[in-house]
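Supplementary Methods, section 5.1.

A reviewer requested that the exact input to the structure prediction be made available. We therefore reproduce it here, unchanged from the version used in the analyses.
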Amino acid sequence: MNIASTDVDGRRVYSVSAFNRGIASWLQRLPTLWIEGEVTELRRQDRWASVFFTLKDPESGACLGVQMPRGQFDALELGLADGERVHVFGRAELYERRGELRLKALTIERYGLGAHLAALERLKQRLALEGLFDASRKRPLPGLPRLIGLVTGNDAAAKRDVLTGITVRFPPANVLVAETYVQGPRAVPSIVTAITDLCSRDVDVIVLARGGGSFEDLLPFSDERVVRAVATCPVPVVSAVGHEQDTPLCDLAADVRASTPTHAARLVVPDLGELRERLARARSGLRRGTTLALERRAQRLATAGERLRRAPLLALERKRSRLDHAQARLTALSPQATLERGYAIVHRGDEVVRAAAAVAPGDSLAIRVADGQFGARAE
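The structure derived from this sequence is encoded token-by-token as follows.
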């Protein structure tokens, strides 16, 4: 590319724009490449066509401006923030108007811790969509487990804390320890195998314990295989991994999350002293309840006995009352009562005279009144 220049007193002189245009053309010959650095001064506006940030070398402090079309940047869905370490793939270019060297980014990838965080976030979202972290999947812990499984590292402080906490709270507890790798490349299959083996031993609950460590040290407990092993475990799982501020994905899949291994011990077994106090209160309550129940039954029996004693008398009184009533009705309806009111019964022979036509003059009649009878002759 020929860059125009002018001769001034035997000198070949270029304008600023010509110089910048020439440098820009030479930069275009450079190949695309990857550059590593920390994101700083991230600037993005909805009305801008591009996103701008500065790529900084954390060791030397050297800086390089980066520009990327906003559509491409948004499509990556990285959610970048200042301080994150990234790899940027692009080509060097010169902003001719201002003579500024910058990198035109074609794509961006997180690097190191940022890459792990991004991968974990994607895994977390995918497993959450499957329902592995749903509250409806959480199971209650057994109140008094017969056998407790403990998955932990060999000679680890977490192991000591869990065992000491269980022994102090509930000395009769039975604990089956599965020592395993808790960091490094061999940790994931070892943890999964330990969980499976404990389940085959008929444990009632499993404690997954590991002390604090760096982000990289705790990565096995966010591995998909470990998370699925915890989520599909046939018995409840208590996750006590890292410090309280650490949240590996196995914490989300476990039935209960413990902030520390000591806290896990308090969750899986009751306090023996408190249990004895509850039993004493329950025994006392049962004693009082039994006494009250016996008193109530004795009262009911006494009441029933009194009712049984009075029942025959009441029955006799009712029957006597009915008899008296029936007697009064019979007395009121009897022929004698009618005769006492002044009526009489007339007989002609053996027949009762019911009509005057039944009697002829001269017939002998027998007339009965209340206090006797006398004879008469019809006229």
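Residues 142-270 form a domain with the Rossmann fold fold (CATH 3.40.50.2300). These observations are discussed further in the main text.
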